[in-house]
Amino acid sequence: MRGREILRLLIRSFITIIVVFSTVYAMANTLTPREKWILLPDGSISQIMPEIEVIGLKDEFCLAQNIFFEAGIDTMKGMYAVADVTLNRVEHSRYPNSICEVVYQSVMRESWTTKQYPDLSVADRIYQPVRNKCQFSWYCDGKSDIVPTGSVNWEKAKEVAFNILYTDTERGITEGATHYHATYVVPNWIEDRGMNRIGRIGYHIFYRWD
To answer: How many other C-beta atoms are found inside a 10 Å radius of the C-beta of residue 173?
Structure first.
């Protein structure tokens, strides 16, 4: 009897190690460096300390990430427009009420690392976004989410995120838009009931879901 208890304890410990390792590994390979910023008296933005955070991402980082991957090569107006849509979704009843939740919203599927263990609790299970089933395509398109070192567009994305969050720069530029698509595609959802075209800003066309 005692041997069975020891074996059961060893199995649980092994499963716990696998779960923790898989969680840290998955997040570490999908997240990019987050940097803290301060606004100097002359109006410029300064970095306090570059750091990598696996857990506890803040709004500034999530918003900058979305701007960079959705509109990194767009005009400044286009980058602000993507940021504005992200914030509009936060305020919309159909979407999550935080920036990071809006940015990472997706269809989730349980990882094989925990699915094979039926006795695991819900809290111990690992869920990952299904490829090409995210609200913002970059998050689960199978491509790297690593920001290139020294990227000028990443610096612009951080500036846009900071400005729209803390100085309301260009807030409302999309007139309440909740959707957009690149100018070179025509998605089916533009015909959905209640979808109203706002217009083009930069490399995207924007819509408000009323």
So the answer is: 19
